[in-house]
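Note to self: the last two entries modelled the partners one at a time, which told us nothing about the interface. This time every component goes in together.
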Amino acid sequence: MQVDSALVHHVADLARLGLTPEDQERYIAEMGRILGYVEKLNELNVDGVEPLVHPFDARNVFRSDEVRPCPDREEALANAPDRSEMFFRVPKVIE
Amino acid sequence: MSHPLGEYELVIGLETHVQLKTATKLFCGCATRFGAEPNSQVCPICTGMPGMLPVLNRHAYELGVRAALALHCEIAPFTKFDRKNYFYPDLPKSYQISQFDVPISKNGWLEAAGEGHTVRVRIHRAHLEEDAGKLLHPESPVGRADYSLVDFNRSGVPLLEIVTEPDLTTPADAHAYLTELKQVLQYTGISDCDMEKGSLRCDANVSVRLRGATVLGTKTEIKNLNSFKFIVKALEHESERQIRVLEGGGRVVQETRLWDPVVGETRVMRSKEEAHDYRSFPDPDLQPFVITAEEVERIRRTLPEMPAARRRRFVESSGLTERDAEILTADRAIADYFEACAALHAAPKLLANWVIGELRKEMNERHLEAESLAEKLPPARLVELARLVEDGKITRLVGKDVLAEVLTSGAAAGRIVADKGLAQIADAGALEPLVDKVIAANGKTVADYRAGKKPALAALIGQVMRETKGKANAPLVTKLLQDRLGA
Amino acid sequence: MPPSAPTAPTAPTELTAHALRAAIVARRLSAREAAEAHFARMERVEPQVKAYLTTCREPALAAADAIDARIARGESVGPLAGVPVALKDNLCTRGVRTTCSSRILEHFVPTYDATAVERLRAAGAVTLGKTNLDEFAMGSSTENSAYGPSLNPWDVTRVPGGSSGGSAAAVAAGTAVAALGSDTGGSIRQPAALCGIVGLKPTYGRVSRFGLVAFASSLDQIGPLTRDVRDSALMLQAIAGPDPHDSTSAAADVPDFARDLEAGVKGLRLGIPKEYFAPGTDPEITRAVEAAIDVLRRAGAEVRAVSLPHTDYGIAAYYVVAPAEASSNLARYDGVRYGLRAGAEGGLLAMYKESRRRGFGREVARRIMLGTFALSSGYYDAYYNQALRVRRLIKRDFDNAFAEVDVVVCPTSPIPAFKVGEKAADPLQMYLADVFTVCLNMAGLPGISIPCGFTSGNLPIGLQLIGRPFDEPTVLRAARAYERETDWHERRPAGLA
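The predicted structure of the combined assembly is written out below.
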């Protein structure tokens, strides 16, 4: 896998990770090396092998539709970096 | 079709999000009550706090299956949940738990009554997902504030997304489909479908092509359609816009557009190049779900008769007009009420007139919910009233007043008629002096009538009715007047 | 310096949990004295070991007093009554900050307890504080902590392993009798091996993950770090079992883990996977593990060769699956509802990017990048799905092996504790050191690391025993059988104050 600066920027944008020029160079080298190693997975014939997401099969884990009392509103907002009365506050969102 | 498309035809697909009628959210036990104080119906799970995990609401899943069955969908025996990853301040985990490649259902259809034709729409798929929170953009003294506010009460509310095939060809048909969809979901108790409360929301995919073309044109997606009226307007506007672009030698750009109800236009929200890469993958926090054919049948058996079938039955076996059947079936509770009344009476058409006419008017004035109608006015009471009119005991005019009185006092119609002396006056001897009095007092109207102005008779009849407080038998009054005036 | 000779421990900071509880219940020692002895020892050794990020002296002493009061009133107490324990700082604790060793959660105070923490307290354990880890449990040395590395009590110039390095160092240094850690690719077993203690990763789903800050949800599992196998069983007993708040917690009944603990290995079939004895492992480690297998053979176990042919692909598959899940799990740290917020003056997008750039350390950012890439359009099938297919092959390897044997035996880590900074420059080399541990997580299997010797440099060596799904009893039984024949687990580091 050839990792270039365009790819690094694209991925960092998707992940909302700020990049310094130094980060960018580092990622090009490190990701290239790690993904290069990972490519050994392609040595294996996986025809007909289903992807395994969960280690074990369990099915139909439900909860019943019963209301649980919500914690105090102050608890919900206790860790908020910025708030306005009972709302979380963020920089203006432009649609 | 009134829409001016010329040589073009319109292709529409709709994506509708409906809120499932559950007590709690999709993956946590917070209540879903509408109108609660901001951030008062939230917990660490639906605000995406570290270490929190989702557990699926069984009722939401079953309502999803129920809806899918009402839409004639195939139910997936095996289904799973996926994470749709994107950043937005109203999305607490920065991913939405949704269903990507194995939705709970697919391949259904719905038939709606269009203008003079039946609109058949194929349902591509219906899947479960959680709602996001709500963003508010407050005004500051100098215009819009430089911040937005987030309320997570809606975050995690269970939604069913219903996606149609691009089978709709006019805004009116889209309207008919949505009307039918709303009815079906309300009938089956799946959703309130109240757009004002956000429990039904709609996005539209629109493209135009030359009539007869086999390939689809480039589509745009329109968001923010929060009333049926806006949907029709937005579809009209967007199709015209696309045609103008093509006629002008341009190309339609694949993009997401936002309907702006204030200016009545759609505008670009984001282009395809800016389209999200959602990186959907199976949610490792949720195991898959399976349902047996027996369970599907069990749920299917609990479905009520669908509005379309009921309409048909009302027309075919109760002799109602299409229009009456449509009005009566629009609300399941009204239709149920009508049927309960009709069971006590041999002439459903007469009862339908009462329900559609006077009763609906009274309900509106009194803000009476259809659900509580049977309690307020037991079907037997309405039937009694209808019979009093049919049997000539009271006039229809008096009947309207009696209905109001029954609803106010809760007394039986017969009792009210007796107590207030409202029985019909069908005795010529009793009416003749009144007729003479009216003729004497309305010389001008009488002259008009005699001069050939036939409508003047109605005014004179009205006068007699007023004199008797509506109790006079109208045909008899008419006959007496005509006799006196020498018709 | 040779390992210190085993002596019968008497100080509360040297006892096992079961011995300490017995002393407290018999009122030879109060829970308060036990707790205070640990805080006193912390004052002496923490400057060298740096196992803790946060200590909770007052609430701990209050909890200890409550235990003492119950005992004084003759009331029944839990199986961990008065036992001082440490919690890895990725386990949420109500009212006590939970940082995950990250800047992004530096001031985060949960309003809830993790289920495992709640259960530990219900069993009477006294929680002393929160221990250091590699940021968000990503790493094998605790060097990836935003608050500086923890150090190995056996040699404080070396790492304690990771990511549960703080928990392992605390238990080894005598500043906690037992601890909870989490294991996504070896993060309990490897630090246990490097610190000369016992570390158990239960079967995936055995312990609720509710309240464990997620790294990779399909791999993460909470487990105990203890001084011996009996304590391991005791701790597991307290925290195991279904939890209605975790859809992936197993419905399986929880057996009595102590019941067959002393049953020995006679008749047990042990499988030796040849792929785990390949060149590249420190020869001293291979020799110690081979000697340990001999011990088990002499104790009556039947030893057979087995093959786990896809072992060599474990690291590659793991370093796709784990970062992919992590990239999504860590997306919630966006500066909106909690955690570090930076750059908000530049608008929403700047806030996201700055909060996350400043909040996450290098290793975490690297894995977010790798995982985001692996899930992105155009690469999903080639990377993420391919890794999940290989994951199934790895699981099948174990299924086949367990058709023939009851327990698989191998080293825990190919290397002993290394010097701080020695491997920091090359992430891939660091990843490769997880070779013996990641496959269990991929397959969801239970595994334990127990002390089985020392290198010539006096660094602990770990022996790994792997069992069938939900067969912790057999794993614990085999581990206990080895422990009964040896005294490695009784050795304590001598270099500390």
